[in-house]
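Thread amino acids onto this structure.
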């Protein structure tokens, strides 16, 4: 394929553990999500929204923002305790209107397509958020308490509709 050079505005944040408050890296992700006017797509292998995240999603839903979550199922998670904490939020997320897609290693094994891992367990590990087909957020930040206050993380927010369109086109082809 031909490589195209696109322009856009970039905001980057890195942070050491934040001692009890959300790190700059986490705030970069949350601030981008708060800009949403129509839709947010979240890909996070370890997702524990907590009360703050639930409130953000409730507010977004009241404003007509569609939220879609891609995360690991229990079968694909290498952190069952984190998955257990996420599972406690699942019913409320669905009630709010969040669409949830949980990664299934069994389907990957059967498909032998994109991501086929042989005998290893296939799991989601990407941390990507797309906001309004305009902002692309990538980095190491999971949407869970460990990434918020305990881990050294980074996030990059790229304001480039062309880049988002290209990324979504590539993911649809897989």
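Threaded sequence (174 positions):
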């Amino acid at each position: 394929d031909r490589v195209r050079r696109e322009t856009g505005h970039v905001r980057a944040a890195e942070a050491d553990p934040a001692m009890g408050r959300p790190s700059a890296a986490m705030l970069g992700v949350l601030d981008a999500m708060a800009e949403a006017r129509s839709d947010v797509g979240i890909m996070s292998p370890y997702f524990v929204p907590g009360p703050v995240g639930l409130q953000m999603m409730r507010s977004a839903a009241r404003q007509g923002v569609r939220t879609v979550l891609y995360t690991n199922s229990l079968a694909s998670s290498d952190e069952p305790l984190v998955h257990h904490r996420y599972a406690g939020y699942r019913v409320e997320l669905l009630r709010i209107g969040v669409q949830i897609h949980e990664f299934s290693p069994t389907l990957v094994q059967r498909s032998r397509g994109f991501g086929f891992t042989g005998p290893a367990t296939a799991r989601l590990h990407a941390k990507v958020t797309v906001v309004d087909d305009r902002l692309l957020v990538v980095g190491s930040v999971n949407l869970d308490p460990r990434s918020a206050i305990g881990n050294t993380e980074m996030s990059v927010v790229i304001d480039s509709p062309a880049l988002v369109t290209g990324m979504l086109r590539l993911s649809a082809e897989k």
